[in-house]
Amino acid sequence: MTTRFYVRLAWVLSIIGVLPCLSPAAASHTGNLQVVLAAGDDSEPVFDNATRELGRRLMASGVSANDIHRLSASAGEFGSGVEPAYADVLLRRIAELPARPGDRCLIFLTSHGERGAGIWLARSNRSLSPDELAGALSRGCAAVPTIVIVSACYSGSFATGKMAKPNRVILTAARGDRPSFGCQVHRTYNFFDECFLGVLPQSASWRRVFEGANRCVSRMEHVLDVRPSEPQAYFGSAVAGLKVDF
User: Fold this and answer.
1) Which residues pair with 232 in a beta bridge?
2) Which residue stretches of the chain are H helix?
3) Poorest-confidence range of 26-30, 36-40, 69-73, 183-187?
4) Residue 1 pLDDT more than 70?
5) CATH for 3-235?
6) What is the mean pLDDT of residues 97-110?
7) Strand order across the 33-39 sheet
8) In the chain, where are the structural domains located?
9) What's the rounded Cα separation, in Å, for the pair 17 and 86?
10) What pLDDT digit, counting tens, does each position of 207-216 carry?
11) At how many degrees (to 10) do helices 191-199 and 46-60 cross?
């Protein structure tokens, strides 16, 4: 029997609960990485800087440009495959990801956040809620291993509720009732994005990415003497040990 048969079998077994941890991690190395990167606000350059840099790294690691979809609130970024970050465009792009058994999804959203509402999308003049994102992910990424990074104030709400599925790893920049820091015009990245991008190359797993980014954010906030943002994470039972494979 072919390798593809065993990958598909493992995926089916993971859905029905026979293989709660092993199969998605194993399958994560056999297919493509389907990526959506979105900078939701253009009031500071930090958001586009982060999505641009992560996209560059992904392509340098061998991820096809055709599998990377970047969205922005800044008109200066449009073109060359960059779409406007309207809520409906972003949700449709995620919902239509052609993820198949053996693939993985990576969603990276960075912007300002609105307490109790979600992550701000300036083009639509509204926030995108966790439930909206969860619905789009359930269509496009379905049951494949999915990494979601939401970098915004109050973004901890994205690590609970309908977002919490067995196939998802979710990293957020702050607790649901706490702001995050570093959204300033003179900075290259906000605190969380700087820490996330900094630890990513040396982290073997997504759990290690979160632990390293959390420590880094804590150090930066300690220097400012501000109330800690307390980044949050969720590791679904099927992907608890998911490796960083790019």
Assistant:
1) 172
2) 3-16, 22-27, 46-60, 87-95, 130-140, 191-199, 206-224
3) 26-30
4) no
5) 3.40.50.1460
6) 97
7) 82-84, 68-72, 33-39, 104-110, 146-151, 168-172, 232-235
8) 3-235
9) 36
10) 999 999 999 9
11) 10
